[in-house]
Amino acid sequence: GRPACECNTCYGGPDCSLFLSSCSANADGGDPLFLEPFWKQHAESSAVVVAGWHRMSYSFSDQTTLSQELESLLRKLHSQVGNAITDDKYILFGAGSTQLLNAAVHALSHLNSSFPASAVASIPYYAGDPARWKNATNTTGDIIEFVTAPNNPNGQLNEAILHGPNVKTIHDRAYYWPHFTGIPSPADEDLTIFTISKLTGHAGSRFGWAFIRNEEVYQRMNTFLQLNTMGVSRDTQLRAMKLLKVIIEDGGREIFEFGYKTMTKRWDRLRKTLSMSNRFSLQKVAPENCTYFQKVREPTPAYAWVKCEREEDKNCIEILNAAKILGRGGSVFHDDDRYARLSLIRSDDDFDMLISRLESLVSKEDGAK
Ligand code: PMP
Fold it and tell me: Residues 243, 35: contact at Cβ < 8 Å?
């Protein structure tokens, strides 16, 4: 056996399998390690080895086939999955979708006016820069609306609520993959952003891409990306290409079936655990037709959006924290603190621990069902 000090922080015992009771279950943060077992099964075919002398140039001065090949792999994947129409659209790579979201805001503000545009989104919303964002009602002037579909934190397939000549929309499609939602129809929007983080789980590689209809918007985003980081790391592009090749080989069947199955099992366990509770409830997301799996299916969102139902439980995350569960309070998403977000896409160990902590919390409820 290994000494306790060599185990991960929250484990002990001779083979590090004993969860320490002092530790909290981690359901904070969207680290998508639920896909790690898939990549363990494809360790060899997904490996990348790069010799020291290889691909040293700046990516813009090295117009080799790498970015072109990556681009055609992405277009192929979207046509296999049916989640985006990519014909007649420009494509740009970014350091995660985060950089592309920033590039898009840059490109769309001051487009037709000397005043900066206001950025808005419907509550609850995910935001990198909360100070700049507002609720999407009651705004005048040039407006950029962020539409996150499926939404973080609640998994709803949001649609744009603002329309008109002074409105520009950025569609954040980070979670528009069969792991998390039915794919009712392909996205065909002016500006749509995807990320490898929630597709393959490689959040640390920092790779995202955007489809852009309008040439001027594309040029302005491209200028931002060149000034900001001079393009996306070649090493990252190489790794993304290798990963995409593995998933494209069978039309995405294996990874999406794995992701969908894993998320379905997790939602079943979570629903069962909370079905005993009068105190905590889960969001309801309508079933969607999935053109990829060719059936109507229950959505399996990346996050649980838990509501504390008791009048006195005004701060839901405090109650969960006291029961040794880490997550994020509703106010992080500009909503009521009666809500809290729990991440369901972390590792199997994190999820098992979350269920076990929830079970013991629910079992202590007065009048639990
Ligand atoms: N958009 C949404 C809705 C997200 O939830 C996240 C990450 N949690 C991101 C964008 C950023 O992802 P990345 O920069 O890793 O692509």
Answer: no
Which residues lie below 8 Å from residue 102, measured CB to CB, with a gap of 6+? 128, 224, 228
Protein residue with its CA nearest to atom 1 in ligand 1: 174
pLDDT of res. 59? 74
pTM above 0.90, yes or no: yes
Please count the helices (runs of H) and the strands (runs of E) in the chain: 8, 17
* Cβ atoms 239, 202 nearer than 8 A: yes
What fold is seen in the domain 65-248?
Aspartate Aminotransferase; domain 2 (3.40.640)
Amino acid identity for residue 245 in this structure: K
Fold agreement between 4-40+252-363 and 65-248: no
Mutate to test the pocket of ligand 1, among 98, 122, 225, 344 (most ligand atoms within 8 A of CB): 98
Break the chain into its structural domains and give their ranges.
Answer: 4-40+252-363, 65-248
Contact 205, 236 (CB under 8 A): yes
Give the CATH number of domain 4-40+252-363; options: 3.40.1380.10, 3.90.1150.10, 3.40.720.10, 3.90.1210.10.
Answer: 3.90.1150.10
Q: Which residue's CA lies nearest to atom 4 of ligand 1?
A: 174
Residue 250, φ and ψ in degrees, nearest 5: -115, 30
CB-count exposure of residue 355 (10 Å: 0-12, 13-18, 19+): middle
Are the C-beta atoms of residues 134 and 120 closer than 8 Å to each other?
Answer: yes
d(C-alpha 289, C-alpha 284), whole Å: 16
The 10s digit of each residue's pLDDT in 20-47 is: 778 899 999 999 999 999 999 999 999 9
Please list the ranges in the chain whose pLDDT falls under 50.
130-132
